[in-house]
Amino acid sequence: MKNFLVFIAILVSNSIFACGFYPFGEEIRFSFFNPANFNYYSYSEFNYSYNSFYPNENGVYPKGSIDENEKLWLKYCHDKVSVEAIRSVLYDFKEEDIAEKSANEMLQYLYKTKNIEAINYLKFAKTCEFFNGIYEDPWERKEGATMPKRQNLLNKAIAISNKTKDKEIKLRYTFLAIRLAYYNYDFEQIKLLYDTVFKTQKKKDILNYWSLYFRTFAETDKALANFYAAQVFVKAPDKRFMISQSFDSKIPLEAVLKYAATNEERANVYFLAGIKKSDQALFCLEQVYKYDPKFEGLSFLLLREINKIEDWVFTPYYSLFNPAISKYNSWDNEDDNSIKGILGRVENDRKYADKVLQFVSKVNLKKINDPVLWRLGKSYLSFVIRNNQKCLNEIASLEKNITKKDSLYNQIQIIKALALTANQEKGKAVILEEVKPILLKNKNNRKFLFTIGRELEYKQNWTDAAFLYSKLDDSATKYGDYYDYNVVTWKNKKSKSSYRDFYSDYFDYIDANYSPEYVVDLVEEVKSKRENLDAFSKWKQSNILAQIPKLYDLIGTKYIRQNKLELAALYFGKLDSDELASYNDCLWEKPNCKGTDKYNENPFFVLKYTPNFIKQEKLFKLNKRSITEHLILYLKKASNPKEENKDYYYFLVANAYYNMTQYGNSWMMRRNSWSYIDDDPFEDEKEYYEGNLAQKYYLLSLKNAKTDQFKALCLRMIGRCEKNKLEYQFPNSYDNRIENYDNFLLSKNKYYQDLKSKYKDDYENLMSDCSSFEEYFKARR
Predict the structure, then answer these.
(1) Do you find a cis peptide bond into 536, omega within 30 degrees of 0?
(2) Is residue 188 included in any domain, yes or no?
(3) Are 147 and 137 a contacting pair, CB within 8 Å?
(4) Which pTM was predicted?
(5) 500 falls within a domain
(6) What is the pLDDT of residues 592-629, one digit of tens each?
(7) How many of the other CB atoms lie within 10 Å of CB of 96?
(8) Which domain holds residue 705?
(9) What string of DSSP letters covers 494-539?
(10) Which phi and psi angles does 289 have, rounded to 5°?
(11) At 341, is the secondary structure helix, strand, or coil?
(12) Is residue 701 part of a domain?
């Protein structure tokens, strides 16, 4: 029944996120201190990760290594057999395969030396294998928790153990009995067997720690159970994942440590306590160093702490997300998720990084097992706290002692590239010559490319930042290695917390955040430097080079947002006829000239959801350039003091500006997509939703109107703009529900009120039926 409830809980939680995606976990975590570059494979299940802790499918021993049990058997056989032969017997053979005629090297040796006790043990162990597991009753009635057959084997194992003369085989029988007792829920038997056989051993081997593993679960004293768990965790790598879950972090360490008799045992307790901490664990690091500085777990604990600090500092600093593992990853508190709140916590975490650095700097490297890790950690932590020169000085020393073939060499180069880039003066930062080969070597590491780009952007080199962001699109993900989560999503400092407040594409990012001048610089660098390019420049520019027409279109669009029409027309005019649109022919008022597929309606003469009411005398091709140039032309005519049809041209201009809003047929003049990231920081955001320019020119049309009917039509359109503005300013959202919303908007719309008071007879016609617009427009003269 419990399992069923768990299934329901998972199903419900999955359905919550089924309607959309939001980045989280390892996808957003920034990490450049790669645990795979260090020799701590047996602890890899406890690498700092959003997925902590996750069992290692390939085991905890590196490929080709010999585990502790295999070593015991090798020693038992006096190194006369191969480890492969031992593995075959232990993991592949069945009871009937253990026979004198077997070609297996281990069995041949045992039969040849007439070691019948060992042979009988192997057969008995195979008999027990089926019973080494808990077979659950789905209805949880606790029936079948114990099995008579298992009890018989347990009794037999104890009896044989008592009679066996071979001490090692005797211990193996006792371990089998302890394991059978665990699966038979006989915890008192576990205590009795362990405490009488294994507890007094002076020299403990893997059999002892395997037995202590089960003894831990049988212990009712929680502090003592924690003590046992810590010793098993260190000494039995294949039991680490499960035993770690039994360690209760709520038990005071003082209560656990009273059972420790040696410094090594004390260090083991602090080590597991540190592993279990997802927050700051410097105290545990210091205590492990104090009691057992040669312990390899000390170095792993430092590695894990550095990976934590990376997440706490770099994930928010570069992506503006909360750390992947954070108590602040919640939608409940707006302040916790605000950019200001996120970046404020980064500075506190840099201070903690400095404390860890101070500890690392005081450590005697001659006392620890992995001085290279500590030196590299010292360098990297210096980078974390922005002491870039100190980081580089340490790296220069490390480079002399590590060959380029060593995996650590590339690890060092990545940190070096980060520090070199960050160490430049604001306003003068570039991609340094020394950094270029490192970028090329790591061009598939998206987060590394992005981080170098982000550092350049923070140093005001937006051009090179954009080049590197553009390369995120073609960085291949390498599944099965360090790049399992080789994706980048990031925010803008102006972003407001919402369900779609992030970017994953360079074009969307520069669209919303770069000035048109920055995009011009980007294009000009590519177009002006095409000869004698080195390999790095060709790689850097390749994606931008393929998108020049798209970027010209973007530049023009950005100038439209700034209402710089002449500049917009200039860059729209740079588009080639074979690219996004045919811009070079049929631009002006020629008969029978069809528009592009993108523009199905003329923004000057047609209003969305409104029947045609303005006759277009001459047709012209519709695209961004022609629309912009016509807008310039009509504005010029409307501003001419001698122009008799100022009201007409102002009305056409107002129509065009209205159609360039979210409500019009030509929104693509301002946006590349109708629906954008919530609260995206476009400089013309208000204009896009409120239509202030349209309202401005409808007012000018009204000012120059000659007849009451046309004035009434102008007021109707001005009121429409006001309605859109009020909807933007007073959204009828879930958090801001307004009763009688339509009446609320109408009461606040002063232009509709003016229309009603000044042109009472026309109000009903214009407000209830927009088909009457044609009649009112014709009455302009």
Answers:
(1) no
(2) no
(3) no
(4) 0.88
(5) no
(6) 445 555 677 899 999 988 999 999 888 887 889 889 99
(7) 8
(8) 586-778
(9) TPPSSTT--B--HHHHHHHHS-HHHHHHHHHHHHH--SS--HHHHH
(10) -60, -40
(11) helix
(12) yes
